[in-house]
Amino acid sequence: MIKSELNISLDASYRDLAKRTDVRHILGLSGGKDSAALAIYLRDKVPNMEYFFCDTGKELKETYEYLEKLEARLGIEIIRLKAERGFDHFLKMYNGFLPSPQARWCTIMMKIKPLEKFIGDDPAISYVGIRADENRSGYMSTKDSIRAVFPFQEDGLVKEDIFRILEESGLGIPKYYEWRSRSGCFFCFYQRKYEWVMLHEKHPDLFYEAMKYEEEHSDGRKYTWNRDESLREILVRKEEIIAAHRKKVEKEVARKSNKSLVEVMESVLDEEDDTIPCFTCHL
Ligand code: SF4
């Protein structure tokens, strides 16, 4: 592999770039639906694709299962990238300050750094599953040797297409989509209140572990994953939160009868909080 800066015209399409044999081709899977659909979509379009997953060690078991299913279905290997140290080590390093949308050290230490180590100085094309109906950005490598491309945007694919690709491939959507619409760590601060109480419902052990991170600090301080409510407070309102969510879903189903329940749930959750998460973790 020649190590050099990428010498590519900015308007080169991903289909042209896919043919290049002098660069690495990489696709990051987050455990979410869009990156999985992209892996399916590009399976026969990009030879020599390297698939990777940045494993924080704090993912849901459904995520690991989904990745295994994807590997089996496509006959690919997904390389698991891990930070040298785990979340608890970094939390100590940051004096117990929980990560937040404003201080996303978790993504930097546990996803971006391992990824940059994996790529090194090799020139690479990074295929990213942001859709044509989305307007989000996030971490783009600042390295001149990496060029991000967006096949769904180039080809005009929107959310409905993603569901169709997953359905037709037989892979389907991740199991956690029944109650949570974003991939990532079980304690991710991008979760909405309904997703938190459903974490309690589906994985009570993980919910209480997340609660411990809020409450157990040697300096006696308390941190919360949410800006306005602790997990203990959210738990007290569990039934109320679930009831309110169900009511909104029913209303939305009546309004958009052609949408699947999963799509409806996602749009209801987005209405509650549509903060755009990072695509390193949630694609
Ligand atoms: S999923 Fe959330 S908590 Fe985990 S690394 Fe990404 S932003 Fe941080």
Kindly list the characteristics that best describe this protein:
283 residues, 12 helices, 44% helix, single chain, alpha/beta, five-stranded parallel sheet, 2 domains, Rossmann fold, binds iron/sulfur cluster, globular
Describe the structure in your own words.
Helices cover 44% and strands 9% of the residues. α8 (193-202) packs across α9 (204-215), α8 (193-202) packs across α11 (238-255) and α11 (238-255) crosses α12 (261-272). It is built from 12 helices and 5 strands. The model has no long low-confidence stretch (mean pLDDT 89). The protein has 2 domains: 14-177, Rossmann fold, CATH 3.40.50.620; 182-272, no CATH class. α2 links the parallel β1 (24-28) and β2 (49-55). It is an alpha/beta fold and 283 residues long. A 5-stranded parallel beta sheet has the order 3-2-1-4-5. Iron/sulfur cluster (SF4) binds at residues 56, 99, 104, 106-107, 110-111, 184-185, 188, 190, 278, 281.
